[in-house]
Design a protein that fits this description.
This protein is of the alpha/beta class. It has three domains: 105 residues, GTPase HflX, N-terminal domain (Rossmann fold, 3-Layer(aba) Sandwich), CATH 3.40.50.11060; 64 residues; 182 residues, 3-Layer(aba) Sandwich (Rossmann fold), CATH 3.40.50. The strands form two sheets. A six-stranded mixed sheet has the order 6-7-5-8-9-10, sandwiched between helices. It has a four-stranded parallel sheet with strand order 2-1-3-4, sandwiched between helices. Helix 4 packs antiparallel against helix 5 and helix 6 packs parallel to helix 9. It is flat. The chain binds guanosine-5'-triphosphate (GTP) and magnesium ion. The site of guanosine-5'-triphosphate has 23 residues, from helix 7. Belongs to the TRAFAC class OBG-HflX-like GTPase superfamily. HflX GTPase family. Pfam families: GTP-bdg_M, GTP-bdg_N, MMR_HSR1.
């Protein structure tokens, strides 16, 4: 595993841009997420730099004037790491490294780093390692000294060209070895999944930290690791669940995030196959999060990328206990009602009126509305079960 962790346990600055499609509030929320990622990786964000740009500057991500501000701040505040809220191209990374005298990380790097620290099984480890090397290959610069020494980071002078070439060769070899290893793992996992028979398979999907594992635990009485950090779950867990008289398999999977690095989506093939092969998706949403609609869109985008967008899906709005909304005074005639003023009842009405989508509102933590959730899951599983086992209809008689 490529270790970059100890390098982040220091003061960091966050750097993002606001495009013409975003408002400032949205950009704040994106940086809140980057700060949460930084925290999860063990760092502390002490300052944010934001610049209005239509698209990232091709050479330096933000303009050089702004970069000067960052440089000055870094120098006078003992900042160890600058974190950019997007994937930097190899050229951008090189240019910024020349400019700023600190460790440079981008969003992809940060996510890969968290995944690396979370990986438990050999399959998860191999998947992350492959993604890390694929990210690293075009970016071998002075940041990475010769691999034998394995020292990343601050102030290291670069290896010579021949050393970089040697490193590239080593990395290419590692990539092809890992790919072979993963092909073997994929085969084993696919056999395992086949051995589970024809039982209906339900997968919990959703943005990271929305409560998938918590819900899995309350429904299946298992003890899957859940915590208030991003990407608590990397390895899938499968449990047999019985609701009324129908048994089915429930899978807890890795959380998704906005701009999930493509290397990760590709290398997590065997993990995502659980989703791909599921009969029913429970799309869990944290309705208490100000950006939850954005989260839904990100998850749908990834589902689309793994050809799972058209599966039967129930939207499970979780954390209703934590939902808050803004209010408008009765005598305030100026403020216009926006989404931030929607009550939980408003949201329920909106989603219940959407006839194409099944939805349910719960709190997995407080077990609010859990019986209705189970009923809903039962109904949906039953539809699939009936198709699969047409002669088993005695199962559905009410007792
Ligand atoms: N207030 C509130 N918090 C909840 C609820 N459900 C889960 N949480 C909390 O949300 C945090 C994340 O929960 P997890 O179950 O780990 O979320 P996850 O979706 O599995 O997250 P990843 O595995 O990181 O993708 C934990 O601190 C939970 O206690 C809920 O209904 N209400
Ligand atoms: Mg989880």
């Amino acid at each position: 595993m490529i270790e970059t962790r100890e390098a982040i346990s220091e003061k960091t600055v966050l750097i993002g841009i606001i495009t013409q499609h975003q408002d400032e509030k949205q950009s704040e929320e994106y940086l809140d997420e980057l700060e949460f990622l930084t925290l999860t990786a063990g760092g502390v964000a002490v300052k944010r730099f934001v610049q209005k740009l239509d698209k990232p500057h091709p050479k330096t991500f933000i303009g050089t004037g702004k970069l000067e501000d960052v440089k000055a701040y870094i120098e006078s505040n003992e900042i160890g790491t600058a974190i950019f809220d997007d994937e930097l191209s190899p050229a951008q990374l090189r240019n910024i490294e020349r400019f700023l005298d600190c460790k440079i990380l981008d969003r992809t790097n940060l996510i890969l780093d968290i995944f690396a620290s979370r990986a438990q099984t050999s399959s998860a480890k191999a998947q992350v390692e492959l993604a890390q090397y694929q990210y690293l290959l075009p970016r071998l610069t002075r940041m990475w000294t010769h691999l034998d020494k394995q020292k990343g980071g601050i102030g290291m002078r670069g290896p010579g060209e021949t050393e970089i070439e040697t490193d590239r060769r080593i990395i290419r070899d590692k990539i092809s070895l890992l790919k072979k290893k993963l092909t073997t793992i994929d085969k084993q996992m696919s056999v395992q999944r086949k051995n589970r028979g024809k039982m209906v398979r339900v997968a919990l999907v959703g943005y990271t930290n929305v409560g998938k594992s918590t819900l899995m635990n309350v429904v299946s009485k298992s003890e899957v690791f859940a915590e208030n950090k991003l990407f608590a779950t990397l390895d899938t867990t499968v449990r047999k669940v019985v609701i009324k008289n129908i048994p089915f398999l429930m899978t807890d999977t890795v959380g998704f995030i906005r701009k999930l690095p493509t290397q990760l989506v590709e290398s997590f093939k065997s993990t995502l196959d659980e989703v791909r092969e599921a009969d029913l998706l429970l799309h869990v949403v944290d309705i208490s999060h100000p950006n939850f609609e954005d989260h839904i869109a990100s998850v749908n985008k990834i589902l689309d990328e793994i050809d799972s967008k058209d599966k039967p899906t129930v939207m499970v709005f979780n954390k209703i206990d934590a939902y808050t909304h803004e209010t408008i005074d009765e005598d305030d005639l100026i403020t216009e009602k926006t989404k931030e003023h929607s009550t939980l009842e408003d949201w329920k009405r909106t989603w219940m009126n959407d006839l194409e989508t099944e939805s349910i509102f719960i709190s997995a933590l407080n077990k609010d509305n859990l019986e209705n959730f189970k009923e809903k899951a039962y109904e949906e599983v039953k539809k699939i079960h009936i198709q699969r086992f047409p002669y088993n209809d005695f199962l559905y008689q009410e007792y």
